[in-house]
Amino acid sequence: GGGVLGAMDGKTLIIEDSLLVNNSSRSGASAVRAHGGSLNMVNVLIAHNHSPEAPAVHLNGAATLTNVTIADNDSGVLHNPVEPLPLIVRNSIIYNNGWAIAVEPGSVVEVGFSNIEAGWPGPGNIDEPPMFRDSDTLDYHLRWGSPCIDTGANTWAPNHDVEGDPRPLDGNGDGTAVADMGADELLLQYNWMPMLLHR
């Protein structure tokens, strides 16, 4: 059950610019279940998915998550490949789930420039409340002052966010455009004074 089920022996499943929210499942995964092949997720919000037993994202093969937000689910990401395969997480937020990332023997995990609850080793990683605007109403835009603003890596970032807004932008006003962590890029409209949220 859940939002997306991919049985992809030798294939690649690509999920881009998508919202996977308010799904439920008794087993397997509440949002994404992918076995065999590989999974590539870019600009995806996974939130408010529920299962008494299963993770929000269950991966049995290689996977790359870029600018993905996984938040407020009953659980996080489980990676249990049958052979040594990579799970790569870049510019992403995994926070306020039952747990963040769980791995089993065979996982080769690389996490960079991401906000992972309870922390994860890797360059640019942080463990801080992401400061979503209003997660109770599925408003996962970043609030001004979020530690996820301008702390991603431009090298990996797509040229737009989950809503089609351009990325990277200068979200903290320091004159340098740096990608945000997560699916959304903070979009600001600069008037003379004050600085106003465009959305």
Describe what this molecule looks like in 3D:
The protein contains no helices and 16 strands. The relative contact order is 0.14. Strands 2, 4, 6, 8, 9, 11 and 12 form a seven-stranded parallel sheet that branches. It is globular, with a radius of gyration of 16 Å. With 199 residues, the chain is mainly beta. The protein starts with a strand and ends with a strand.
How are the elements arranged and paired?
Elements: E1 4-7, E2 12-21, E3 32-35, E4 38-47, E5 57-59, E6 62-71, E7 77-79, E8 85-90, E9 93-95, E10 101-103, E11 107-112, E12 115-116, E13 132-134, E14 139-142, E15 188-190, E16 195-197
Parallel strand pairs: 1-3, 2-4, 3-5, 4-6, 5-7, 6-8, 6-9, 7-10, 8-11, 9-12
Antiparallel strand pairs: 13-14, 15-16
Radius of gyration: 16 Å
Number of domains: 1
| Average pLDDT figure | 88
What does the overall shape look like?
globular
| Secondary structural class | mainly beta
Number of helices: 0
User: From N to C, what is the helix and strand string?
Assistant: EEEEEEEEEEEEEEEE
Spans of at least 5 consecutive residues whose pLDDT stays below 50 are 190-199
| Amino- and carboxy-terminal Cα gap | 34 Å
- Main beta sheet: strand number and arrangement? 7 strands, parallel
Number of strands: 16
Helix content: under 10%
Strand content: 35-45%
